[in-house]
Design a protein that fits this description.
The chain has about 250 residues and is α/β, with parallel strands linked by helices. It has one domain. Helix content is about 50%, strand content about 15%. It has a seven-stranded mixed β-sheet, with helices on both faces.
């Protein structure tokens, strides 16, 4: 059965990238001239990927909680590409804080630019945070839901990684409310490897944090609610994060 699931996973991955190419052909020229076309294209792409995940590998998906539609900061647990797919399929105008290298990735880089994502050079930590804040607060970033992964990278289910201060600085400087997001997608779509497992992948939008908290208090609260609720969702999926802890 594992071999059959692996074959299904490879087929799914092929279809996922094929869909990206098809969407780029269908919407690419329109997105150059009309920014809103980029949001339509990415929404359609994410819904297609969710459809393929469900019917090819048996990975159903669900979005829980109150989905933000105004201009907010979204701080999400990041376990695999699938949590990106679920968030983007849910919010109307997604844009990301992302590493600069993604801008040079074929197709993905083009769509990141059209969505108004903010690229960060992770090799220049202090300067990167300052530029990120300047872009967010100066209006260089387009209106919408600004998504950041506070741990800075994908983190495997059960792994521990510290939360970085950048999300707290953006929360403080932007004056926007923050919506934390928990997930269990890493149980089914691991950080590495080709195998995609059947089950129910979930992202959950948690109660918003209103502006005004001191940064340290915000960071403590953010880590607590995201980690606790992600652990709850993973246990719901039959995965015990406490017994799988690793760095």
């Amino acid at each position: 059965m594992q071999i059959i699931q692996l074959i299904r996973s490879v087929i799914f991955i092929f279809l996922m990238y094929l869909a990206m190419l098809v969407m780029s052909i269908l919407y690419g020229i329109g997105a150059i001239f009309k920014p809103d076309v980029a949001f339509t294209a990415t929404d359609h792409y994410c819904k297609v990927v969710r459809f393929f995940a469900h019917y090819v590998v048996g990975l159903k998906s669900e979005v829980r909680g109150e989905v933000p539609t105004d201009e907010v900061l979204i701080c999400s647990k990041h376990q695999s590409f699938f949590d990106i797919i679920l968030i983007v399929s849910a919010v109307p105008r997604p844009k990301f804080i992302m590493k600069k290298q993604i801008l040079y990735t074929p197709l993905v880089g083009f769509w990141a630019k059209r969505l108004g994502c903010i690229a960060v050079d992770r090799g220049k930590r202090g300067a990167a945070v300052k530029k990120m804040i300047a872009d967010v607060t100066s209006g260089a970033s387009k209106p919408g839901q600004l998504i950041i992964f506070p741990q800075g990278t994908r983190v495997a289910a059960g792994a521990k990684k510290p939360y970085k201060i950048g999300s707290g600085v953006i929360y403080s400087e932007s004056g926007q409310r923050c919506v934390p997001v928990a997930t269990n997608v890493g149980v089914f779509w691991p950080k590495h490897g080709l195998l995609r497992k059947p089950g129910l992948a979930v992202i959950e939008f948690l109660p918003a944090v209103e502006p005004g908290l001191p940064i340290n208090d915000f960071m403590e609260h953010l880590e607590e609610v995201v980690e606790d609720n992600s652990n709850r969702l993973m246990r719901e999926a039959g995965f015990d994060p406490d017994s799988h802890e690793h760095d």
